[in-house]
Amino acid sequence: MTVEGEVTAPVAAARLVRFQFETPVDSTLRETERYRLDLCLTPRPVNARARYPDRPGMRHFAPLGNVFVVPPGERLQAQSDGCCEQTSLLCEFDPGQMNNWLEADIEWSDGSLLAGLDIRHGNIRLLLERLAAEVRHPGFASATLTELIVAQLAVELARYQLALSAEGVTGGLPGWRLRLIDERLKASGEMPNLAELAALCGLSVRQLTRGFRASRGCSIGDYMVGLRATRARELLLTQMSVKGIAYALGFSSPSSFCYAFRRATGESPGRYRQRLRT
Length: 278
What we know:
The protein has helices spanning 95-102, 110-115, 122-136, 142-167, 175-186, 194-201, 205-216, 220-236, 242-248, 254-265, 269-277, and strands at residues 2-9, 12-21, 26-29, 35-40, 49-51, 62-63, 67-70, 76-79, 84-93. By secondary structure, it is α+β, with helices and mostly antiparallel strands. Helix 4 (142-167) packs across helix 7, helix 6 (194-201) crosses helix 7 and helix 8 (220-236) packs across helix 10. It is globular.
C-alpha cells in the first residue's frame, strides 16, 4: 500500500492510496472508532465482495461497489477473485463530530449496512471526488476545506441512511428484479426509461421507483448517472476514443457525453484521462 497524498483536519483525514493486489484479496478491516468511506478511482478486483462477519444477518458476501462505507465499531471482511492495481480515496471522520453536526445519532441496521456496501448516491460520489481532487492538489486552507467537505458528506450519508430506514430496506425489490434492472442498464446502447424498466419487472412505475429507492437508497436516475460515470471511467483507462465511448454508453453525440461526464465528475473526459496517465 502506497499513500500518494494526504490532507488532515481536526475531525477528519483523507488519503489517496494505491494498492497492488498480486493475489486475490481476502482481508479484514478491523473495527475503529471512526467512519470510513472508500471511493475507488480505478476498477476494483474481479468479483470484489464483502460481509460483516460479526453481524448474524450479514454473514453472506455481497458485491462491493465503487463507494462503500464502514460505520464505527464494525469489522468488514473483503474478498475478490482477481488481482489488480487499485487507487482509492480513503476518508475517515469522527462520529462524535458527525452527531454534533446532525444533532442526532445514526443507527445502522443490517439492511442499511448492506446498502452501504454499494453506495450509488450522486451527491456522495461528487463530494468524495472533490475531496480526492483536493488531496491530489492541496491549496490554501486545505484542512478547513476538507472539514467542510466532510461535514457535507456526513449530512448526505445520514440522509442516505435515514431514507433507507424510512422506506424500509426489507420492503425493497427482490434480488431477481434488481439483477434484471442491472443487466438492462449495463447493456450497450441507449439507457431505458422508467416505463421500460417497470415493464421489465412487471411493476408500475410508482412501485418500481419506491422499491428501487428502498433497496438502493437512491433514485433510479441517480443510479443511472453513477453507473454510466463508473463505466465511462473504466473505458477511459483503455485506448478507446472519446467518441467511441460516447456511443458505446448510448449517448447521442460525443458532446453530450462530455457534458454529462463533466457534470458528474467535475472534469472533462480528456482531462480525466490525462490526469490518470501523469
